[in-house]
Amino acid sequence: GQTNLKSPQDIRVYAVNTNFTLRWNYTGNDTNVTFSAEYRWFEDFEPNETEWKELSGCQNVTGRECDFSSAVTEYYDTHHLRIRAERGEEASPWSDIFEMIPYFIAQIGPPGIELQSTNGVIKIKVSPPEANRAQKMWVAHSFKYNLVIWKNSSNAELRTRSIFPTDVIYDLAPDTTYCLKVQATLPLDSQEGLFSPIRCVETTHKVNDPLCATNVRVLALNMKFHLHWSNRYKQHVSYNVQYLLGYLKKLHEDYSMKWLSVPGCENITDTQCNFSSVIATSGFYYLRVQAMGEYNESCFSDEVKVDPLITNEIGPPGVKVDISDVLLHIQISPPGGSENEVMRDHYDLSYRLLYWKNSSNSEEEIKMKEIKQTIGTVSDLTPSSLYCVKAQAFSEVYNKSSRFSKEECIKTPGDKISSLIILATFVTALIAVLLVAVPFIFVLYQAYSKIKYVFFPSCQPPLNIESFGGQLLSSPYLSTMEEPIENCSIIETIATEEANQIDSDDYQHSKQSSRDSGNYSNDDNTSGSKASEETLQKEIV
């Protein structure tokens, strides 16, 4: 059971697409030695439960490598490989096990390319790396292709760009030999393939047909897309604008018959077209202009690519300002209007506000504030000052920004504290005036009342007093020089009872009619006169 043969070392596998090559080193000096390999593969089973099998293409190999591509059919399963040296009936121990998952160790092979030089451009057609293979490791439509092109000269500058399976290379110098190579990549798996063999081709002169539309360009603002071009043709010409869905160029198919006409831009004579109706935010597009002359002549312009969210430019937002006691309120309308959901949702817009106090002082600082919402506020305002605001919309995701909006200005109200001070001063002054004026007016009124009462009384004295003694009394408070006293005598001829009654009545009347001056009232005098007259009449009788 003993042997002098050494085991192979440095087991490794090289894989390009579905081509697998096993390589190893052998340090022994033995002659007539061959090598044989075994493999096993499994999914969810333990490796020890899977039997080893002979590796097809790697039996009794005299060299240091073998091709076992036909033995690998499952590219996402784990495979184990081992190899040993053999000489007759003698065999070395098995080498260390080499473990692999074919998909992860395989390298993308070079693509195939076809070139055509015509009318100053190079048309290129790329075939996927496994175009002619029955078994495929990769999914063909997942490939992206990188082109490297340069002039065939000693000091050539390399240019790299992405291309589609069927594409056109523009901006080439005429009568110049260009060399190029193409590489296939899988960006999602971060895999880069091998370059194709270098191919060279000479360019031709471009036919300068005046019928063709030139300077084709796209102007887009707030998701409104317009195509413009120039007309050099001196005779009657009409245009048909066509578009192509961008994903069709990714397919390895002929898309020449997939171009569609833009509605409203068919057989027109104008040199612009609104193609917003065919644009959606997902995907990308290609546009071209077909010029048609009077004699069935036709010419296509160069193609222009439109990636909607990248090609589109953001317009300035709308701004409205309002003022409260201490805050400046700023209302922003998104670019394109509030109904333009594409601008609001896809760009994830933010807003940059510039505001300043508009005064004759040129050194007033312009302040900036960034907000995500469409409503902003500014504090620390100076009363009775004119403030101006303008806004800019920007998207960090797409690295785009709009122009600033028009300035909107508003004046802040006056200082409320000063108004309160003025009001308080007025009220205080009014109270002080009232405190001084009311007593003064009261004193004047009392004086007026006394004077009027004394000199212009409202009540007059009785007539008998007014004409007594032939004098007119103008005031009951003015005393006369001499007050006349009437002397009366009572003749007691009537019964004592009757006389006592009269005296009692006279006493009551006299008591009730007494005044400050001792004069009798009109009523008392009258009653007294009547009593005297009655007594006198009785005496006469």
From TrEMBL:
UniProt feature, compositional bias: Basic and acidic residues: 531-541
Protein's UniProt keywords contain Transmembrane: yes
Lineage: Eukaryota, Metazoa, Chordata, Craniata, Vertebrata
Annotated TM spans: 420-445
Residue intervals of the Fibronectin type-III domain: 313-415
Keyword Transmembrane included in the entry's annotation: yes
Disordered: region residues: 500-541
Top-rank taxon: Eukaryota
Family annotation (CDD domains): FN3
UniProt name for this protein: Interferon alpha/beta receptor 1
GO cellular component, as recorded: plasma membrane
Compositionally biased tracts (Polar residues): 515-530
Molecular function via GO: type I interferon receptor activity
Matches recorded under Pfam families: Interfer-bind, Tissue_fac
UniProt keyword terms in alphabetical order: Membrane, Receptor, Transmembrane, Transmembrane helix
InterPro entries linked to this entry: FN3_dom, FN3_sf, Ig-like_fold, Interferon/interleukin_rcp_dom, Type-II_Cytokine-TF_Rcpt
